[in-house]
What does this fold into?
Amino acid sequence: MEVWIVFWVLCGIVSAVVASSRGASGFLGFVLGVLLGPLGIVIAFVLKPSATLPTTPTSSDGTFIKCAHCQGFTPSESRCCMNCGTALA
Ligand SMILES: [Zn+2]
It folds into this structure.
């Protein structure tokens, strides 16, 4: 029966990866996958990003620029990334 435990945990991991790739909580995806198995993966696919998460500032409005080194957002007037310190062009 050990194979089923491995299978269920694998479902949890796959759900976590799917959920996090869709902007939702990876932990939530893991719980869904472990509890529901393959059905959890399906639910993870249709999960929407959590509304409670703060919206990520976009570079399109010109207020923030994205660091090429760490992918973090830094105010456009900064000379270096406030996340990793890399000099910005
Ligand atoms: Zn950076």
Remarks:
- The longest strand covers residues 64-66.
- The chain has two domains: 2-46, 54-89.
